[in-house]
């Protein structure tokens, strides 16, 4: 028996004309639920509801916004075990990772509850006599939020929480593949007291629901996380219609391992960054750039550590790596492994895992003997696949690290303060990690990249206000 979960429009749960069936990638016989797919007319109603709710919500007191966000944060934290399990069941990350993600979503709501109280302004002496200048921030209006499948609760949370904290109303379109966690999140926010129309949920396909959001003149801004191709197409449309836009997209994140690195630290950072969450993180360490003196020892140690990793059902507690999210992504991972082999790489691991059950199980793959021009080092795989590029020394490693179209996260493992300091300053990425994985970030500081990875203001932390507010300058003559 499966349940049907409705869209949330103007404070009401509304069935759609169609449903998507959410399948557990660890067990293809397990149906998580059937989720309504909205059509363009329902999306329009959701947008209108948000627009109608905006005049009141935008002037609500900081205390009102704090209370809603704080209650939602408390509910997420109280329910992190069961919601973490649901997340693992629909997306395939392990239960521990799922619980961690829901806990993080709860902390994000707590942080932005505080931000609702902290939104001050400036009073600036005018250059003219008898005049005062005030610089304040105001909400934008209706924000369309379009999210991917790999962080089904954290990404919706880190878009909804700041949007509401600063007085905006939202229409969320989660990934069609994993709507269950987002559905629970929206229910929690509604129960936390968000007034009717402030938060709306329209599930379904990007080509229908996402398209309707991007094309509506009532939507003031779009915050998007997903692939480069979709992000760029949406951005072009938003620029044409004058919408504010924020994009977080892919990565090909380098992890540099220098001769002077602590080998154990480097291996743990690379195992975590490359393979945990099945490598399905935009911040995954997918290019391991290793200097000659440590290269062979590093590769052997990685292979030994990879052999200890258990790939299997995400809901089984001792699983280290859950399944790939769906058949299409599994095909993409296997295609990249094959192409890397054809282009001269030597592949360790990377086969289908037998006897793990009826799911999309892939062993982590390490591809050695690659150079930075190979496709495996240019394009995002988004699976448990990492490649190794050998570098002569630190200088060459830095050049290789920067030789990419992306610029989200970059890491270095070294015991040299000089190299760590130089790398922090000169690697062209939005986030830099020293002796720790390229993935795994705090919730109260900015998140984002440069080059092909990101566009527009940063997400998260108090920097989120750059996107979710607009500045007003007022002149007051005494
Ligand atoms: P997609 O770009 O395919 O989808 C992202 C979202 O956009 C989904 O909700 C999708 O809907 C929607 N969408 C698709 N087409 C349109 C359209 N024409 N108009 C409006 N919305 C549309 O990415 P994935 O979900 O497949 O996620 C994987 C990719 O996202 C990877 O490349 C990864 O690098 C990147 N990513 C980046 C992150 C970052 O922070 N930098 C974080 C997470 C992922 P639908 O549900 O139908 O697919």
From TrEMBL:
<dbReference type="InterPro" id="IPR016163">
    <property type="entry name" value="Ald_DH_C"/>
</dbReference>
<protein>
    <submittedName>
        <fullName>Aldehyde dehydrogenase (NAD+)</fullName>
    </submittedName>
</protein>
<dbReference type="Pfam" id="PF00171">
    <property type="entry name" value="Aldedh"/>
</dbReference>
<dbReference type="InterPro" id="IPR016162">
    <property type="entry name" value="Ald_DH_N"/>
</dbReference>
<dbReference type="InterPro" id="IPR050740">
    <property type="entry name" value="Aldehyde_DH_Superfamily"/>
</dbReference>
<dbReference type="InterPro" id="IPR016160">
    <property type="entry name" value="Ald_DH_CS_CYS"/>
</dbReference>
<feature type="active site">
    <location>
        <position position="248"/>
    </location>
</feature>
<keyword id="KW-0560">Oxidoreductase</keyword>
<dbReference type="InterPro" id="IPR015590">
    <property type="entry name" value="Aldehyde_DH_dom"/>
</dbReference>
<dbReference type="InterPro" id="IPR029510">
    <property type="entry name" value="Ald_DH_CS_GLU"/>
</dbReference>
<feature type="domain" description="Aldehyde dehydrogenase">
    <location>
        <begin position="21"/>
        <end position="473"/>
    </location>
</feature>
<dbReference type="InterPro" id="IPR016161">
    <property type="entry name" value="Ald_DH/histidinol_DH"/>
</dbReference>
<dbReference type="GO" id="GO:0009450">
    <property type="term" value="P:gamma-aminobutyric acid catabolic process"/>
</dbReference>
<dbReference type="GO" id="GO:0004777">
    <property type="term" value="F:succinate-semialdehyde dehydrogenase (NAD+) activity"/>
</dbReference>
<comment type="similarity">
    <text>Belongs to the aldehyde dehydrogenase family.</text>
</comment>
């Amino acid at each position: 028996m499966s349940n049907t979960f409705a869209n949330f429009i103007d404070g009401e749960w509304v069935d759609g004309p169609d449903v998507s069936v959410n399948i557990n990638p660890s067990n293809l016989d397990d149906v998580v639920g059937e989720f309504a797919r909205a059509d363009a007319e329902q999306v329009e109603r959701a947008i209108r509801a948000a627009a109608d709710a905006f005049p009141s919500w935008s002037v609500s007191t900081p205390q009102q916004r704090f209370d809603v966000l704080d209650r939602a944060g408390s509910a997420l934290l109280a329910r992190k075990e069961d919601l973490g399990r649901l997340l693992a069941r629909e997306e395939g990350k392990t239960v521990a990772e799922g619980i961690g993600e829901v806990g993080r979503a709860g902390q994000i709501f707590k942080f932005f509850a505080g931000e609702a109280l902290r939104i001050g302004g400036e009073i600036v002496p005018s250059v003219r006599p008898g005049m005062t200048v005030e610089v304040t921030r105001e909400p934008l209006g209706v924000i369309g939020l379009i999210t991917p499948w790999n962080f089904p609760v954290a990404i919706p949370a880190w878009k909804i929480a700041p949007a509401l904290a600063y007085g905006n109303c939202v229409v969320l379109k989660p990934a069609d593949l994993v709507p269950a966690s987002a559905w629970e999140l929206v229910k929690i926010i509604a129960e936390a007291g968000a007034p009717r129309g402030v938060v709306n949920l329209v599930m379904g396909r990007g080509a229908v629901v996402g398209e309707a959001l991007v094309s509506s003149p009532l939507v003031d801004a779009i915050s998007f996380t997903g692939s480069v191709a979709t992000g760029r197409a949406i951005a072009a449309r938003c620029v044409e219609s004058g919408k504010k836009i924020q994009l977080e997209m892919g990565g090909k994140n380098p992890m540099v391992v220098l001769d002077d690195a602590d080998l154990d630290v480097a291996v743990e950072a690379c195992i975590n960054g490359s393979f945990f969450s099945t490598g399905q993180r935009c911040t995954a360490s997918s290019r391991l750039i290793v200097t000659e003196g440590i290269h062979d020892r590093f590769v052997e140690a990685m292979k030994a550590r990879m052999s200890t990793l258990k790939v299997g059902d995400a809901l089984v507690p001792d699983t280290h790596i859950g399944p790939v999210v769906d058949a299409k992504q599994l095909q993409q991972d296997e295609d990249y492994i094959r192409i890397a082999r054809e282009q001269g790489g030597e592949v360790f691991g990377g086969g289908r895992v037998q006897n793990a059950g009826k799911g999309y199980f892939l062993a982590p793959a390490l591809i050695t003997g690659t150079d930075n021009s190979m496709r495996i080092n240019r394009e995002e795989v988004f699976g448990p696949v990492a490649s190794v590029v050998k570098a002569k020394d630190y200088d060459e490693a830095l050049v290789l690290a920067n030789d990419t179209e992306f610029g989200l996260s970059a890491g270095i493992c070294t015991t040299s303060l000089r190299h760590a300091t130089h790398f922090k300053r000169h690697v062209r990425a939005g986030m830099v990690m020293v002796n720790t994985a390229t993935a795994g970030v705090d919730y109260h500081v900015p998140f984002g990249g440069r080059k092909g990875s990101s566009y527009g203001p940063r997400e998260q932390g108090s920097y989120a206000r750059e996107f979710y507010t607009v500045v007003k300058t007022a002149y007051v003559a005494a």
